[in-house]
Amino acid sequence: MKLGNPYGTHRVIEPKGALPQPAKKINNDMNIYSNEILLNVKTLNVDSASFTQIKNACDNDEKKIENMILNIVNERGKLQNPVTGSGGMLIGEVLEIGDDFPDKDLCVGDKIATLVSLSLTPLKIDRILKINKDTDQVDIIGKAILFESGLYAKIPEDISEKLSLAVLDVAGAPAQVNKLVKDGQNVCIIGGGGKSGVLCAYQAKKNAKNGKVIVVEYSKENAERLKKLDIVDEVVVADATKPVDIYEKICDITKNELCDVVINNVNVENTEMSSILITKDEGIVYFFSMATSFTKAALGAEGVGKDINMIIGNGYTKNHADLSLNILRESNKIRNLFEKLYI
Amino acid sequence: MKLGNPYGTHRVIEPKGALPQPAKKINNDMNIYSNEILLNVKTLNVDSASFTQIKNACDNDEKKIENMILNIVNERGKLQNPVTGSGGMLIGEVLEIGDDFPDKDLCVGDKIATLVSLSLTPLKIDRILKINKDTDQVDIIGKAILFESGLYAKIPEDISEKLSLAVLDVAGAPAQVNKLVKDGQNVCIIGGGGKSGVLCAYQAKKNAKNGKVIVVEYSKENAERLKKLDIVDEVVVADATKPVDIYEKICDITKNELCDVVINNVNVENTEMSSILITKDEGIVYFFSMATSFTKAALGAEGVGKDINMIIGNGYTKNHADLSLNILRESNKIRNLFEKLYI
Ligand SMILES: NC(=O)c1ccc[n+]([C@@H]2O[C@H](COP(=O)([O-])OP(=O)(O)OC[C@H]3O[C@@H](n4cnc5c(N)ncnc54)[C@H](OP(=O)(O)O)[C@@H]3O)[C@@H](O)[C@H]2O)c1
Ligand SMILES: NC(=O)c1ccc[n+]([C@@H]2O[C@H](COP(=O)([O-])OP(=O)(O)OC[C@H]3O[C@@H](n4cnc5c(N)ncnc54)[C@H](OP(=O)(O)O)[C@@H]3O)[C@@H](O)[C@H]2O)c1
């Protein structure tokens, strides 16, 4: 068995010298290198921005969605949406562990969730068993490879596989909120009625304590179910692609103070300006949404003369898997809701 | 005279409710609202990422470049490159000031540089006089509008117009470096031989003092002229689109410590992974380059398990115009070089 590069560059076919994530095509041959592991994949959790794009492109037709997913994987060797660039993650069982794989606690048969994006994970799909359009999850028969540097989490005993998968998909978001939000602050979660949004809202309120946590959410249903969780101070039903409207609403609620921290968790384009306008001078916008445009954010802030810090949502930060799973353990209401939505 | 929205939304034609920067088309009628000012434009400084794209699309042919610029402005009412989304800035003379424009010190006849992007500035070009492919500057006969929230700087007495324009175009970059870099740190400037790169390198060394400032630069010429300025500790000639090569070189120079702060100032795509790989755990990457892809950065960092902070380069921060012009006043060597390159 040959030793591969820790970051998986040995599997990049095109362009040469690139890393697997930005690469156009990677090698999904399922014979492992000595520092890789082989997984029997059970379920893919497609990234929300990607799945929304796929559903739209396929007129929500299940057969077309299936073909589109298979075509992407055949062409690229990985499930990377060519439009959004994003992937998702997976759960599966460990089939084989290379001798040089560093984590010696991992055993064949362990159930794990990958914490690196499908947009860089070598994947082979034999068959698609079921597409769940509501949970963004796709059950398959297939295999995948994890590189030496690839992050993963063992599926916990006390939380079901599908629920773990759903939460771990967005684990970076609440963990970053934990690093950013301080007591007494005004915080706004845009798209706070969605999966990552609810987790962020919970964590934001925990950290902001006496501060104010506001959620902007598009649909009445998501807003209602969020209100029932009793975790935030205000829920605004509004369209985040309409910055002037959002700005006026947040001015009202905060008495023109605006927000110290804004977290963007939507799955649609063109919400950068809303996020920027409602942020205080020297405040922070954390863009977790994969539909964020770099130039729209950079030039948008300059265009309105806002001296704010804009952060690119890194899906990884230390301890993110535990922190997000613990939210389910702490909040029965969130756990019950997520069990209804994602299992 | 009617009062316009401070952010210029009254001029957005499509899509409704958007702000001028993300808008597809804005109204470039040159009758001002009462909180706008009208400018007689002399020179456009096209954003480097945009100009590179335009030059490539036009096979570097001057007539084609001219037509492409005119077509963009005719179609959009502003000089926003449809591929990169970016613009640039301009210098001109104040022709008319609306009664409700807030800055009462500004006078008709003043020479100013706009500090908001051309990607949101209503512009009308009567004629293109000269395209300077080396400086990214385009002399025109034409007019532009600045909104109430639009930032600008008066052209200083002691620095020529063209040189001011060149430096103010990238003023955000060294000012952000000033906020991020601390004494003793390892700092790497990727694309540090270019315009914003040189200013960032100077500011980084000023702040890092006993730390180490490393520049990665593509061309030998730019590397040589940078070395002659004597402002940095190491200059590496390498291609930042090749992350593995860059990583190995920076490991060597820093004895595997890597960098506390990485500033990305290139004008080409696919340099996110190089920036990420050479950053220390919990370090900072500041992406000033307009060719940055949000998803490549977000998923790339997760993909290699890097717990780092990635910042979107906001073109504005307080006092950025003065800070960057002062670099020319402090360093004769940089001033002489920039006078050769940009006048
Ligand atoms: N940075 C990373 O590493 C990373 C990792 C995973 C996911 N993500 C990204 O994070 C984002 C959220 O993921 P998720 O799983 O939490 O998605 P989700 O559950 O689909 O949540 C998205 C939420 O945004 C709301 N929304 C949509 N359009 C809106 C609008 N115009 N105004 C206000 N709210 C709006 C949705 O409301 P409706 O349902 O009513 O439309 C929904 O509640 C996605 O973009 C995803 O790609 C990033
Ligand atoms: N965030 C903002 O508000 C804002 C405002 C203005 C500008 N910008 C952006 O900032 C960036 C830099 O602008 P600038 O005016 O400083 O541009 P510039 O003078 O053209 O500098 C770019 C530098 O990057 C180098 N480079 C190109 N490809 C490289 C590679 N593969 N590896 C290493 N170095 C490479 C270039 O070297 P060669 O010349 O040898 O190719 C050049 O020295 C652009 O992307 C621009 O769009 C951002």
Describe the structure.
Two copies of one chain form a homodimer. Chain A has 343 residues and is α/β, with parallel strands linked by helices. Chain A has two domains: 147 residues, no CATH class; 171 residues, 3-Layer(aba) Sandwich (Rossmann fold). Chain A contains eleven helices and 14 strands. A six-stranded antiparallel β-sheet of chain A has the order 6-7-3-4-5-8, with helices on both faces. A six-stranded parallel β-sheet of chain A has the order 11-10-9-12-13-14, sandwiched between helices. A two-stranded antiparallel ribbon of chain A has the order 1-2. In chain A, strand 10, helix 6 and strand 11 form a beta-alpha-beta unit. In chain A, helix 4 crosses helix 10 and helix 10 crosses helix 11. The longest helix of chain A has 15 residues. The first copy, chain A, is globular and about 65 Å long. Chain A starts with 11 loop residues before the first strand and ends with a helix. The model of chain A has no long low-confidence stretch (mean pLDDT 96). At the A-B interface, helix 7, helix 8, helix 9 and strand 14 of A face helix 7, helix 8, helix 9 and strand 14 of B. The structure holds NADP nicotinamide-adenine-dinucleotide phosphate (2 copies). One NADP nicotinamide-adenine-dinucleotide phosphate binds next to helix 1, helix 5 and strand 10 of chain A.
